[in-house]
């Protein structure tokens, strides 16, 4: 019986699903899987990319935990690919590797003034409020009026976190420094801008509904955005998700805060549709002063065209939530244009040809780009695993595939890796920190402290 020693780089949902699918697959070989991650804790974007007030989505962690707690997958946390281990190292000790490193940086937005002080990427802000250990502990929340560019779930998460009263986040796992930062924020108005209309948004009904449930926050929508064209009406009639979104927005139109008239809340969250960003206007000091945008209109086919009407909204900071983008990995082919590892159904291809790279695979967002919900990651991983199994004849031939070899290598390099038992220690420690305040947990943010707790030092 062939024994497969597999390395998976990236311990988020994509990597864990891939490991689980392979272990459950009918196969003619034995499997031993090591899961590596640069962070001391597993779960990737579920831990560090989902807003803390989303317990339903974070419930996915329960399913991922069940996979890891079976004990048939080894975890090596706090191990940086390209520094602590390399692709050449993996070839020495494994038959194949799957990269599932995701996409964690912001896609670019090429408009004038995007480099202004106070102009931020949403992904960086998300990493801050989720307590990512590799991001600064402080965030400049000094604006009364804020713009958020984008009409996806991340844009709504960012808008909600900015507008929500921080006291309402206390039952969650929000880090202490994030709570204190949000508490000091002078924000009164958050403006969300999307190029297209209400029937073409990318966010889900659940995300939208949550906005309308915020305490002491008025939802502001504008009647001019609801003069639907035939394509929009068709979308509402034929797509249940679009129909629910329209129903929620229409209910907000009945509230007294619509068009800025008569709302009594201390904060307002505005949704602007048919707004194409053109420029971030700066003040004399180079800071964000206003967003300049062009009013668009439907083109009759689900898209939009410009009207030539230019508008301006005064804001003091701005967040672009126009998508995530993958990062290159040392020694691994990378498509700079699309931010992914070039591949055919998960089989990695050389950068300038369609020639396969033997033994190297990809899954998740680094494979297909940052599209789809977490559930899509399972089918994505199944596709990659199917090819890996069928490619048995082209795997690497490692010099030392023993399970002890990688331990010896990491120890020789002084890597302070964390394992599954260490994650259990950290998990219990965070839950215990939250217990006195009846909070879900208090997330440990400092990397060194995470490692010390995990290693029982």
Automatic annotation (TrEMBL):
NADP(+) binds at residues 151-154, 195-196, 207, 372. Its EC number is 1.18.1.2. Keywords: FAD, Flavoprotein, NADP, Oxidoreductase. It comes from the Bacteria. It catalyses: 2 reduced [2Fe-2S]-[ferredoxin] + NADP(+) + H(+) = 2 oxidized [2Fe-2S]-[ferredoxin] + NADPH. GO terms for molecular function: ferredoxin-NADP+ reductase activity. The keyword NADP applies. Residues 5-165 form the FAD/NAD(P)-binding domain. This is ferredoxin--NADP(+) reductase. The lineage of its organism: Bacteria, Bacillati, Actinomycetota, Actinomycetes, Micrococcales.
